[in-house]
Amino acid sequence: MNIRRLTIADYRELLKLWERARLPVKPRGRDSRAHIAREMRCSPDFFIGAFDGRLMAGAVLASHDGRKGWLNRIAVDPDYRGRGLAQRLTRAGERALRRHGIRIFGLLIHTRNRASLGLARKMGYVVHDDIVYLSKRDGEHV
Ligand SMILES: CC(C)(COP(=O)(O)OP(=O)(O)OC[C@H]1O[C@@H](n2cnc3c(N)ncnc32)[C@H](O)[C@@H]1OP(=O)(O)O)[C@@H](O)C(=O)NCCC(=O)NCCS
User: Fold this and answer.
1) For residue 73, what is the domain's CATH number?
2) Assigned domain for 32 exists
3) Which end of the chain is more exposed for a tag (fewer CB within 10 A), N or C?
4) Domain range spanning residue 111?
């Protein structure tokens, strides 16, 4: 399995992976080709994929605000699960953030997502059940 930075040439494969992983995608919002291309130009280190030959078997997107980092959209193709690939991607995302001076890593996980919660705990993440996530959106497609 080859783990490498993604480029915009990987865009279609990335969306296909998210579909296979049943992650919600916002193709008219932050997941549009133009939006992802802009993000990749700003943060080329933070889009990471795992490849079995030409097939994208997993991916993770990192981001940070200068203080804390986030690992977003960790996804592994159903055929490649249970082999430690998400752990490798998590470590790769954390390494990329560390290279940018980030030492705190966060994950937002739905409470019903048992696999992701299991992954997070295994990777040393601590659940803060006294914090609630709030967001405000400029529309349903963003
Ligand atoms: C969550 C996900 C990325 C895990 O990928 P994976 O490559 O199978 O995970 P790993 O093999 O690296 O497993 C690491 C640990 O996660 C936990 N885990 C993985 N799958 C699990 C499951 N179905 N139930 C409970 N714990 C699970 C286990 O602790 C596991 O360690 P173990 O195998 O030693 O028990 C994958 O199930 C996925 O893509 N899910 C859909 C997308 C998604 O919901 N992403 C999260 C968005 S926030």
Assistant:
1) 3.40.630.30
2) yes
3) C
4) 2-122
Give me the sign of the Cα torsion angle 28, 61, 113, 65.
Answer: negative
Q: Is 115 in the pocket of ligand 1 (CB under 6 A)?
A: yes
In a domain, 14, yes or no: yes
Q: Strands 55-64, 2-5: parallel, antiparallel or unpaired by DSSP?
A: unpaired
Distance 18 CA to ligand 1 centre (A): 15
Chain segment 33-79, per-residue pLDDT in tens: 999 999 999 999 999 999 999 999 999 999 999 999 999 999 999 99
If one counts the domains in the chain, the total is: 1
Query: Is 116 touching ligand 1 by the criterion CB < 6 Å?
Result: yes
Q: Is residue 48 part of a domain?
A: yes
Q: What is the pLDDT of residues 22-33, one digit of tens each?
A: 999 999 999 999
Residue type, 65: D
Q: Which of 112, 109, 140, 138 is nearest to 126 (CA)?
A: 109
Query: Encoding tokens for residue 33?
Result: 């080709």
> Could you identify the atom of ligand 1 that is nearest to the CA of residue 83?
11
Please state the pTM of the whole predicted model.
0.97
